[in-house]
Amino acid sequence: xxxxxxxxxxxxxxxxxxxxxSIDPCSSRASTWPLSAEDASSLRQVVLVHxxxxxxxxxxxxxxxxxxxxxxxFWESYKGHLTPVGSSQxxxxxxxxxNRYLDDKAYLFGGVQKIDGTSLAVYTSNIQxxxxxxxxxxxxxxxxxxxFFAFRSERVFSDSARRAAGVPIYxxxxxxxDDRLFHEWRLDDKYEEWRMQNLRRSxxxxxxxxxxxxxxxxxxxxxxxxxxxxxxxxxxxDRLIAxxxxxxxVAIEEAHNRPVLVNEEGISLNTHERQLLxxxxxxxKRRWYGAASGLRCDSYGKKGAGYxxxxxxxxxxxxxxxxxxxxxxxxxxxxxxxxxLATHLGLELPMIGFGAFLVFELHSDGDTHWxxxxxxxxxxxxxxxxxxxxxxxxLGEERLVKVRNCATGSVTLGDFASHCxxxxxxxxxxxxxxxxxxxxxxxxxKALTNLLQNGAGSLKWMSFGTWxxxxxxxxxxxxxNNDGKLSCSEVQSALSEWGYSVSRETLERLFRLVDSDPExxxxxxxxxxxxxxxxxxxxxGLHGQSIKVEA
Length: 551
Description:
Layout: E1 10-13, E2 19-22, H1 37-42, E3 43-51, H2 72-78, H3 84-101, E4 120-124, H4 128-141, E5 147-151, H5 152-155, H6 160-163, E6 167-171, H7 191-201, H8 203-209, H9 212-225, H10 236-255, H11 271-286, H12 301-320, E7 328-333, H13 335-344, E8 347-348, E9 357-364, E10 369-376, E11 401-402, E12 411-412, H14 413-420, H15 425-438, H16 445-454, H17 464-478, H18 488-497, H19 504-513, H20 525-538
Parallel strand pairs: 3-7, 4-6, 4-7, 5-6, 8-11
Antiparallel strand pairs: 1-2, 3-9, 9-10, 10-12
Helix pairs in contact: 3-4, 8-10, 10-11, 12-13, 12-14, 17-20, 18-19
Pfam families: His_Phos_2
Protein name: EF-hand domain-containing protein
Keywords: Calcium, Membrane, Transmembrane, Transmembrane helix
């Protein structure tokens, strides 16, 4: 699927109100993924979780690679950004899924006159490549729908009229370490130590470290790149782990039809060597969250993506109960996110190419609800869709199951709920909504504190002591008059600097939530910690709820 484009697209609305897409034959794609008539009639909702498209590298490969700029300014400005090729990849994927879910046979959007935030919602991590990938997908999936952007913390204070303005792309407030939806493992201080130990326990990597073929490959990669991590003086295991970055680099160059690892000595990789390098990269990714022992209980899936799995289930549960009108939910994220989610669901992924996705289809016959799951590791390959099968997720298995060995079938919504639901999360969010509504009428600080301290585990953020270690010095620098408090404007500036930008209106509501007057009171460190805990820990409900808060 190489980004072909064609004229002749148009939208029709049938007399019965079913949204249809009519496509001129000259614009059809080679990649198709038809939905059977039986599945079309039972389909109620689709949740798509996908990796971003092809991007710039995040740093130069090494001193010997002459294909990328060395200047620091380039990498500060463009590292990791989605490229036009990556955008085209996601738009093509959107077109394939449009043909599957929006044609005249599909019940999914039956009765929908206009696609907007009431029927379709999008969530993305707060990074350029995932945001742009989400948008690019929509250009292929719903090319004439209006798109708008909002941070998820803002959504709590929005109303339903805003969702009618178009298709919302909800951006996670935090850039990295506090993004619970797409980077939950980063909230666990023990994860990095576990990951490095787990990589070294990999039997596959241990066998590679004793294989002369891989020794020769790493020596060649070092000559190509002069990456010090690949130097023969390093341990073989460290060199193998570092080689994963070169696998990513080569994949980027291949996606852009560029020669790989260009160097002045003219050293190149042959097909077999490229395959060996890909095997290294795939194994390292499998061990990000999947235990080297292969046991689910030793793995990091639930700790790494438990909140994301809960939200996927919640969307489906709300739809099954008739409490949500959302027909399609898109989540734009990273290969790490997909790997963590798959591990939590009991799967071991073969690889995670650009645009790779998990699709969860909710089906119903009126009395029973079930979920069909598909994984496409390489959706940019034209033949990849013909190989897809519905996976009977191995939710109860003791060991992780390779996708190719997973049974064909489905799981019930009840079984999915038993595996993914985090008890208390939604109740805590409801309590938060009630506090927001009451904050202008009665004191709510104590109730908010109790909610954050005693609510479901996923609501808890960092302790006040840890917060002081991370933000205390910055707080004192912003506190120009050294009175130990920040004004509403100073708080807004501080949050923006720390990656938690919120509107003045939202911040004023948060002031009232902790019993402070935004016009006259200031925040001390405990006030700001509590407010940030509310922003990070609560998170908006993903099932379409919002509130109006009286000023």
